[in-house]
Design goal:
single chain; two-stranded antiparallel ribbon; alpha+beta; 211 residues; five-stranded mixed sheet
Amino acid sequence: MIRNKLAELLAERKLKISWVAAQLPNLSRNTITSTASNKGKMIQLETINTLCQYLDISPSDFFEYLPFDISCDVNISKNETSSSDTDVKNILIKQHSIEFDFFIKLETVDNKPIIFEYTGSNLSQNYWGKDLIFKLDKNDTSDFGNVWSHKITPGFQAVIWNDFKQKIADTINDSMTKKFSSHSSYFKFQIRSNSIRLSMDFYDDVFNIDF
């Protein structure tokens, strides 16, 4: 895995993207924003060159690398949510009405992938106006927590954790849309990843949320 550290580098220097864009006429604000978010699959060499010169750093300071890739997959095993009306204005999500299998995959180019298995279910209920909280428990004896603590840097931890939540959100949205599409052809369920909270054996962002 590889990522750029532009967001951290700007934060360390207390630089706003709008200010940087004003100082660098050959780079647009959108380009700098896209680069800092690590959303794009490609960065132009000219962009890297300009930013490294502006920040007075080398490309090795600009990028961060892990010698493996981490991805996840989610399979819904239970969706017992319901609707209180025929036009699906209100979806009822009770505790443990959503359950899923969660797989973390660690792989390199030349090795067989290592799979870490978890089972998840929702602890909170009634999504509307609240975060949706999930507890994920280990399904096997393998220890992803050791990988997380000793092999993944804090910058990558934030990216991977957000990827986990995005994958869960996308999978739940698909499941709910399919479940309730017969009620309304226009229905599309949408929960955002920042409304997902996860509690796992190696990390959680639930904190003191009341559920």
